[in-house]
From TrEMBL:
Name used for this protein in its record: Ig-like domain-containing protein
InterPro entries: Ig-like_dom (IPR007110), Ig-like_dom_sf (IPR036179), Ig-like_fold (IPR013783), Ig_I-set (IPR013098), Ig_sub (IPR003599)
Transmembrane regions listed in the UniProt entry: none
GO BP terms, alphabetized: axon guidance; brain development
Domain Ig-like: 114-212
Keyword Chloroplast listed: no
Pfam families to which the protein is assigned, alphabetical: I-set, Ig_3
Species classification: Eukaryota, Metazoa, Ecdysozoa, Arthropoda, Hexapoda
SMART domains: IG
UniProt keyword annotation of Disulfide bond present: yes
Entry keyword set: Disulfide bond, Repeat
SUPFAM superfamilies referenced in this protein's UniProt entry, alphabetically: Immunoglobulin
A cellular-component GO term for this protein: plasma membrane
GO molecular function: cell-cell adhesion mediator activity
Amino acid sequence: MGSFEDTGDNVVSVKSGRAAILNMPVIRSHPMPAVSWVADDSKALYGTKYAAVTPQASVPDATHQLVILSADSSDQKAYRAHATNTQLGKEENSAYIRVIVIPDGNSEESEIAPEIVVPPSNLTVTKGEALADLHCIANARPLHMLETTWYKDGMRLEPLDEMDGGGYGFGDPWNRTLSLLSVGLVHHGHYSCQVRLRSGGHPTAIASAYVNIIGK
């Protein structure tokens, strides 16, 4: 594993209530490193406000991302990626990325319509792989009223659905990551995520992707 590339001025600006997307700087590593994100105040980055995106090896030019949802003044700090090559035991820290939150003039209680900021990507997966993930990360305000549901070929998926030995799971309590478990031909098809505010009054946001399963 090498060192993180210098990306120069690392600042991300976001309007209050919107999503800030932080892209991890490039680092060469084989195998792909395990990545975690930390803030300069050591606050744990877990909960409905934060989503960490791990790229699939089959998606070209994809990178690890930290998504900060419904940004407010408390998110105005610096963040960096911590990468670990688990085979070598080598660790590297990226330069800090500073987030600046710009007031939008509205109350922090005002609603913001659902918007999918990280849609699922088309995947080609080899049959027999233990796991493949589809991400669907959406922003809205209030976040606790956000609901995400997944569909395959028009049929709604539920946690731990099993089909002919293959299965599905959700990678977090907010259904942002759909995991294809023990990948088989049954997983081949069209997937979509639908995101809405349970309070109503806004259109449902929809994004889709195609999963192609190939034999060994």
